[in-house]
Design a protein that fits this description.
This protein has about 120 residues and is of the alpha+beta class. Helices cover about 35% and strands about 25% of the residues. The protein has a five-stranded antiparallel sheet. A hairpin with a 2-residue loop joins β3 and β4.
């Protein structure tokens, strides 16, 4: 085969790598890093939407308190988000800014129309 015929195929493979594979690998690394930062006392949200406070940690699992007197044991991979700021996230202005709440939510149109 000629080099001219292979060039579009090589370019397509390069574009595929930079647009799909590389960003996916980066997101996976960030996700694994976030899960490794889970510490005792941290508030977390699980992939199922359950919120809780970490009360115990093992290598592969953790215990969460989801209500007073209610503890569950889950695998560490189900942590979707750490809600309490860690030492690295303390400088995030969104964590301390009360103005970022839903105070700017649109008002009910019925109140404006007198209904």
């Amino acid at each position: 085969m000629e080099l001219g015929a292979l060039l579009p195929l090589i370019l397509l493979a390069g574009v595929f790598y930079f647009l799909i594979i590389r960003p996916q690998s980066k997101r996976r690394r960030e996700f694994v890093d976030m899960q490794s930062r889970v510490e005792l006392g941290a508030e977390v949200m699980l992939t199922s939407g359950i919120f809780g406070t970490v009360t115990g940690l093992d290598e592969d699992s953790m215990e969460l308190t989801i209500a007073p007197g209610v503890e569950i044991r889950v695998h560490r991979n189900v942590v979707a988000k750490i809600l309490t700021p860690t030492s690295g996230g303390a400088d995030d202005p969104r964590l301390d800014d009360p103005a970022s709440s839903d105070d700017d939510a649109p008002s009910d149109k019925r109140e404006e129309n007198g209904a």
